[in-house]
Amino acid sequence: MATKEVDTVEPALAKHAFNRVLDSSEKESRDYKDNRTKLLQAEDGNSWDRHARNSASETERMAGAILRAIREYERRKTFGNCPSEAIPGPETRDMGGQFLTNKDRIEQQSKIFEIATLVPKGAILHLHFNAELHPTRLLEEARKMDNMCIRSIRPILSQEDLDLTEMVFSVKPKDTENANIFSSEYQGKDDNWKKPEIEPKIWMKWSDFRREFNEAHKGEYRAKYATADANMLDNGALPNSSEQGTVNLEPAENWLLRKMVLGEEEAYNPTQTVNGVWARFNQATRCFKGLLNYEKVYKWYISNAIDHMIKEKIMYAELRPMLLDKSIPTDDGKGKITNADQMKLIVEGVREKEAELKRAGKGDLFPFGLKIIYCTPRSIGKEKMQSEMKDCIDLKRQYPDLICGFDLVGAEDRPNNIGYYYEELVAFKKVCAEEGLDIPFLFHAGETLLDTGGSTEPSNSNLYDACLLQSKRIGHGFSLLKHPHLLDRFRKTETQPGICIELCPISNELLHLCRNIKEHPFPELLAAGIPCTVNSDNPSLFSNSMSHEFYQIMVGAPSMSIHSWKQLALWSLEYSCLSDEQKGRGKKIFLDSWEEFCKNVVSEYGKLGTFGSDKLVTSGNDKPETSGDDRLVTPGNDKLVTPDDGEKKYTFEIDEDKAKEDYKSSKNSVRNS
């Protein structure tokens, strides 16, 4: 009986005590809310993009409100990311999910992506030289070369051979013996191509290969390659190409295109591995290398790459060619064009394009041309590395305004780490200092999950050596957050410039460092005070572009805003290899184009809804006071962000009916283009 009394009385007392305390804790609750407001203000005041945000014009703030509202609308409507216990339908996608899975929807249905194509992007600082234009254009140019040849690592006799073989292009002399890759007698199998007595006998004319392949597989590979990218090509919307119009690929070209471009299935296959996807990446690189490396296409490529960058709203570029081969063939296949002569072709191509732009009154679209970062692989021996460094120095002497840095490239889970060459790299710095040559290190580092520099020892991380050797920037930096001490060395402060990270989010996803943009550490790196830039790395292999990268950044974290885009673009100029005078001019050009961009966003996309604006007044009341419409800044509203004192906070409400009709018409327009 006593037990029952305790059971009934004690809960009642407990409830009574709780209600009494709850009713009398108004001050504590108010203190909590005030402290929370101060906490948010402190966080906001120390955000990495605060300078861009604090300097924003009224138009930029309005454009930012539109951008945020559209993003959240597309999260719900375009992708269907609505938290629910219901199993989502097959049409539902994750905004910020797998890039290649979402790519078609992004390009055809997203206004955030539309806006991303318009945003001024500053400079691109991490772009491999041969990867700016889509392979379809290179294949089209190759048709014009009667002496373009191809070889295989095995005879092509079966479907298995088609799936497993690796193909390589090269321009050869017209009298080269014409092999038959479709014969069982073909000698190019295994490593025979390395034997001097065999190598001249394994090349088949590309025109002959196409004819035989097309006859055997008439219509077959166009059907088999019916992905979103292939449909875009057939419809004339060429991804990552500055030229417009249709390239009607033949079966042979479509088959090879699959080997040059990383596809959705091979990128996201559950059995795919880091080493496997890297092997596939290197195979693709080798496949289209010969499509670019010959005289005729070289200057054409430079001109068209610049056209494409201008279309992407890029004003300057630092490109990374692999210069280990030392030469490319002349158009007749008999001569060799040295690295120095290749640099001459680049300089001439840039000058011609700059003159063309100035004549058209468009010089500010690409005012500083481009520069070259000398790249060599980490897999070579020390003597060869010494030779590479000497060649880099020689090129810098000949082209002081073109060569702007030195980099070591390759998969970081394979030997060697940067520190393996520390003696050579220290000597390189010393020689440059003695001769007054400015060739900063711009190392790939941290593009790995293991982070052991191709060994089993964490102490061999390339990030350590990149830091010690005072790399001006590092490529990728994905694993930097594993190193708390290094974060202090990379961080930008009032007393140190920091070490900039060249972010390449889509590349990191497709090479299996993360599953999607939402798992990428870029928000954490930025929050830690690390200056970063946005880059596309290898767009021809990954079917991406700078517009796709800026889109991914915006949907990858809710904290990203229009001011974030602005700061990332400004850093791309600040951490470039331009002179201080050029950086100053570039910043002015950028800010002018930025304000014009914001006006366009407000004008074109403001039609989707209506604005509200308020100046938040901090008070001790239960809810914030406002000078206008309380509805727009009520507690719990996801539009409420505590602004700085005196800052007008814009909000934007999407009109669901207008948006539905506008998105529908945009979708139909894309389909019918």
Automatic annotation (TrEMBL):
Cofactor: Zn(2+)
InterPro entries (alphabetical): A_deaminase_dom (IPR001365), Ado/ade_deaminase (IPR006330), Metal_Hydrolase (IPR032466)
Pfam families: A_deaminase (PF00962)
UniProt record, GO biological process: adenosine catabolic process; inosine biosynthetic process
Bias kind Basic and acidic residues: ranges: 622-632, 641-653
Annotated segments matching region Disordered: 616-653
Keyword annotations of the record: Hydrolase, Metal-binding
Residue intervals of the Adenosine deaminase domain: 271-583
GO molecular function annotations of the record: adenosine deaminase activity; metal ion binding
Name of this protein: Metallo-dependent hydrolase
Species the sequence originates in: Melanomma pulvis-pyrius CBS 109.77
